[in-house]
Amino acid sequence: MNRVSKTTELVLRNIEEFRRHSLLVVDPPDSHSVTRLRAECAGCRPAFLHRDYGVYKESLTASDDATSATFDIGFSWPPQGYDSVLIYLPKGKESLDMTLGLLAASARNDVEVYLVGTNRAGIRSSAAVLSRWLEEATKLDSARHGAMFKARCFAHETGAASPQDWEQIWSTSPRGIQLTAVSLPGVFSHGRLDAGTAYLLEHARLPASGRILDMGCGSGIVGAYAAAACPESEVEMVDTSALAIASTRRTIEANGLKNARCYASHSFGNVSGKFDLIISNPPFHSGTDTDYRPTAQFISESARYLAPGGSLQLVANRFLPYQFILRDWFSRVEVLFENRRYRVYRAMEPTQRLQGSRVQPRNRRGGAR
Ligand SMILES: C[S@@+](CC[C@H](N)C(=O)[O-])C[C@H]1O[C@@H](n2cnc3c(N)ncnc32)[C@H](O)[C@@H]1O
Fold this sequence. Notes:
Number of strands: 18
Largest sheet: 7 strands, mixed
Bound molecules: S-adenosylmethionine
Order of helices and strands: HEHEHEEHEHEEEEHEHEHEEEEHEHEE
Radius of gyration: 21 Å
CATH class of the largest domain: Alpha Beta
Distance between the termini: 36 Å
CATH superfamily of the largest domain: Vaccinia Virus protein VP39
Helix content: 25-40%
CATH architecture of the largest domain: 3-Layer(aba) Sandwich
Strand order of the largest sheet: 3-2-1-4-5-7-6
């Protein structure tokens, strides 16, 4: 059997807690965890609320029970309700705050809440956030470099029942185009324009028309800029995060953009056809080292989604060795602009010989972001 995450190991040590309840699991970290929890907790028929599309799709593939999982941001699901909730600690305190606030506002009856996470992700300091929304918070267990808390949620009015209550709305005007952006906690660069993204918007070269893909759209600011700057284009914005998709849809709405749409996709999973421009401040997953394998994978796949004459344009910390990866997959790679921190790359003309094969990650280390 595949290994589950350390956090799921910690949950499995305490599985007796869950067997008596109808259980909702929020943000399971991987599909192996879903499979194990389904097997170990069969009697309580756990339901899974996913906010990561990649894990959601993988879990669906691993199971024939599509009715017990959803990809969403709220707690109005599952329709039959639940009397205990297991939450995997999300990234960032604000995101946990929103998760608990939405739960407290929408739970139909009193529920037992379990929160599990690693020390590295900040589980120790999350007890204070738990106490803000829930009662009787206690530490249930600590092991595997992590901890698990238990608390009770008494359904009550919180004044923060809808995701919109958690939004931040901000403005920016790249190259003089006035835009409004909306973001939820947990979304990259929540409430402000990231410096790297700002650099990309200042220097990207947009086609006058055609299809544009914003990969990893976050709050949707890159795609919104492209749609507003090129009204003749059709812009598609994708992200793996449910919070990002909800934010981007609100950004599209806030700017009245008729030529932009957003949908869930883990990398190119749900994307079809060819694009005249693929633009991105690409995803990073970082621990202590920057891990650029997801970006390397994204670059290699982009080569297959470009229309003739199309380009991939991305911004990256200048110390990251992306030009080497880009050159593996494209014949023409140029630095459009650079400053002390960032580079904006443009890559064109995918190399034929490598198309269709999977990327072999290079064994080079990137600098910290
Ligand atoms: C660096 S952020 C950029 C967000 C936004 N474009 C901006 O510039 O503010 C990268 C985004 O990629 C998304 N992401 C990470 N892995 C992904 C994947 N495999 N497929 C699609 N999106 C992904 C993250 O959720 C995040 O929103």
